[in-house]
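Collaborator request log, item 7. Partner lab (contact: R.S.) asked for a structural prediction of General substrate transporter to inform their binding assays.
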Amino acid sequence: MAEKTEATVSATPATPKGLAVEQQYGIKDHWKALAACTLVSMCPFQYGIDFGLIGGLQSMVGFLQVFGYPDPHLVMGYNLSTERQQLISSLMTLGAFVASLTVGPIASVMGRKTSIWAASLLCVVANVIMMATTDIGGLYAGRLLIGLSNGMFMTFSQLYIQEVAPARYRGLMISSFQVWTSLGSLVGTIVDNFTSKMEGRSAYLIPLGLVYIVPALLSVGLLLIPESPRWLMQHGKVEPARKALRWGRPYTDAMVDEEIRDIAVSLEDEDRIMKSASFKDMFRDPVDRRRTVLAICGLSVQGASGAMYMIAYGTYFFQIAGISDAFEVSCILNAVGIVAILINSSLITHFGRRRVFLTTGLCLCALAQLFTAVVWTVNPGTKSAGQAIVGLAVVYIMGYNGMVATYAWISGGELPSQRLRSHTFGLATAVGFFIAWLTTFTAPYFINPASMGWGPKYGYIWAPSCLLSALWVYFFLPEVKDRTLEEITEMFEAGVSARKFRKYVCVGAVPSSDQSDGAENKREGQVVYAEEVSGKREV
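Returned to partner:
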């Protein structure tokens, strides 16, 4: 075989093997698999609507009369204590964090569909508690339980989409995940806007009633779609896995058999997957360790952008910044966020470079945060400052919703190793939720007038965080657009540097730590490259 350096190979245009097969078929041919993924992608609607509703409830007189205290210095005439504001918002993300930590063990036993059914039931129970109670302790309990539910919704829907969506459309499907999150936030803020002027508990009970809709739709819809073929293969259910692949794709028997073989090669022995995969395995092997760290960091840049304080306290933030019609502004920003995601979704399949979009989005977020803080420092409390903050918030939402949130979730889901996918993605999601919880918990200390009262100057903290995250993405995050999960494994096993992933030419399955014992001893000399010699590719 002719010698070839990695640098030379990286200059050769990449032609992903899996993508070449899937390009024979369009969206119409994959409609069943895409419909199943679209149904499951509705799960984050619950996460979004929770933030949309709770952010508005904290500025709603009917809610504050029950859980807050009178404060004539604020526009709404009431306020929440810093401690209650922290717990009401952050207990949900804390619950999601706890749920994410259990994803690995649960995913090894329960199917993706069963886990989503369990999340739906838990969501209903939590919402019943929140609607029935007038005691702050009961509200806290409901918030924690609905956080557990949302954590399960977010992680298991992601696992299903990653494992079922065709490689060509995986980015598109995961971007729809973010569409549902933003749509939930928009619906929540719109309903809050219309009920905010109502008196009594109805002002917040009506919005909370919306929480039941999606769990009901999911519970029925899941009856119509198959389980993840990868999860079925992990449990030795080859025939059900084959049927699941045929249900979702227009492939011939030979093509289905080939994909089954590819999945089998990428998965370790089923008994070892079920019994031996553990937390230590994510860090013991150098390749697995690299993939684990990248998945965690890739998903964590979403929290590092500082978006959680805007998401959790948006309406409250605008009110204390002196912006009139804070509820309407929140609705507009959520609508802008959806438009940004839809534009991005139309580009992601053809131009969806993860590294470029993430870096650009984080830089936009940094500039918006910095200028917001500067404007409020120079002209605090003025009408012109309020107008400027609204405009900068639009820029921020365009960068965050349109680029950062979508690609952070995609990166966190695509990069884990095959046999440790549920464990690694669960850990990455847990770290992401922990950062979200930390941001949500500490934000009131900075923005609440009863504490430090920084308000918009809070942006001074998050602008540097966004810039540091952008630098990390540029130097360390691999580009895996249009790659099958097996090709991603091959590139990691080959030790390809992050900046050379995009043009690397994959040549087929390579023995890896996902497939055999003693991989560390075998990895040296396993790197396989393709070379063009006299018009023919030699391997």
